[in-house]
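Dig into what follows:
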Amino acid sequence: MLIVGVIIFFILLIMGAPIWLSLGLSGGILAFVFLDLPFEAIISQFLIATDKWILLAIPYFLLAGNLMTHLGTARNMIGFVNNLIGHLPGGMPAAAVLTATIFGALSGSATATVVAVGSMMIPQMIQLGYSKENSMGVIASAGTLGQMIPPSIYMIIYASMVKIDVADLFLAGIVPGLFIAALLILTAIVISIKDKAERKERSSSKDIMKSFFIALPSLLMPVIVLGGIYKGVFTPTEAAAVSVIYVIIISFIFNRKEFTKANIQKSLVGSMVTTTVIYLLLGGATLFSTALTYARVPQQITEYVSALSLPGWLVMLAILALFLVFGMFLDAVPILYITIPILYPAVMALGYDPIHFGVLTIACMMISQITPPVGLSLFVVSGHFKEKLSVVIKGSIPYLYALIIATLVLLYVPWLSTLLTK
């Protein structure tokens, strides 16, 4: 049934059907034709898939990120980081990664991060002599950090699927996220030395302090939102709503000129479109995974993996390789909904911590964002900055290697993923 379902799915994709429809139809056909499930039960899976309290956090975090991008608060933060380290060797690309790390803690959206950080940093990097490839590649790669640095949309999805506390997963993502950011910064510095670009003029202490105080309201947001979650003041879903209110307040007070109806409308429309896409994918993928669950595919895979005499780390390595292959053809959300219901029971049978597996999964989803030919961040950078896709792909390759190395380190050094949760 798994083979039949995958064949139907890829036939529909080749015919040009959207991913959510391909998943939903292939799952619906399996459930209706092979399992004799009632048509009403099949349709209801779309509602069941989205009827979860934690998933309400997704549109709110997306809206917070879009509001920061369009209302100017993100620019304040980028200006401070640029003044702080932009003058160092490889400082501009390093500043781009650091800014994306901070912005990831504000929005949880790779697309919002790429657009917000890239709009300011790419023109400056190119002007100083950094190659287009490196300038585009570092932004596309750094944009993925929002998936590991909490709050993360993918973490919310993963936690809702395997029924673990998303706050624990948020906490677990901090150390791996900072580790990956450090590796990307190191990669950016090495590549930038090869570019032989000019250094940005060193900012004065007065300019640094001034930009810090301008950026301070934005920098306080992750402290308030994540601190509120871990202190038990509010749930992750409530924290998402708080982040929206906070961004609106600081934008109204400190960025009055850009606090316009048009910019708010842009933020709302962008968030609604992205949320709709995620929820449609969620419904279609749930249909597909439900059909396979009724057919006992996950249970059979678990029994098969348990019967193997292979060490657990080798099986896990094969699972991560499977994620990477999927990442070449699919976006992260459908990968999660196709694979997790099937693979999660097998991974738990091997004795892995669900938090550790979650961090590894998110790391692979980060890689999928810049894996050609379908990496979402690659297309966002190419489309938004009107540059050839080949240029963005070429610039992303060194950072892709860095992400793969980071994922292998996280696999073999599991305490990095559980350091803050124990």
The radius of gyration is 21 Å.
